[in-house]
Amino acid sequence: MKMRVPINIPVEHPAFAGHFPGIPILPAVVLLDETLRAIAADRNIDLSAWQIASVKFHSSVSPGDIVHLEHEPAPRDSLRFSLSVGERAVAAGLMVPR
User: Fold this and answer.
1) Which site from 10, 67, 70, 87 is most exposed, i.e. has the minimal number of CB atoms within 10 Å?
2) Residues 6+ apart with CB under 8 A from 32
């Protein structure tokens, strides 16, 4: 089943302060960490035995952006996810069990 959930990164998140002063963007590692937390909570699964097989970043996330996560099962017990801000694609990827 496809699921959709907002990921709210606080404007005052410390990653914004040090990641490009003057032009703050959310580091990819923080975005992926928040994505994994949301997927684990939505699906009630432990993702410690999973790995990100692929991910492609399309655009950045700025302070105040509300990121929407969609995730759904994919072939071979994998999970496909995509992130967007409004209609703008941010990232998409595939997770697989190890």
Assistant:
1) 87
2) 52, 55
SS3 helix, strand, coil % of the chain, rounded to 5?
25, 40, 35
Q: Which of 13, 19, 58, 68 is catalytic?
A: 19
How many domains does the chain fold into? 1
- pTM of the prediction? 0.93
Beta strands in 12-87 (DSSP E): 50-57, 66-74, 78-85
Q: Is 19 a catalytic residue?
A: yes
Q: Given the structure tokens 């914004």, which residue do they identify?
A: 16
Q: Residue 34 is part of which domain span?
A: 3-97
CATH number, domain at 83? 3.10.129.10
Over the stretch 29-81, which tens digit does the pLDDT of each residue have? 999 999 999 999 999 999 999 999 999 999 999 999 999 999 999 999 999 99
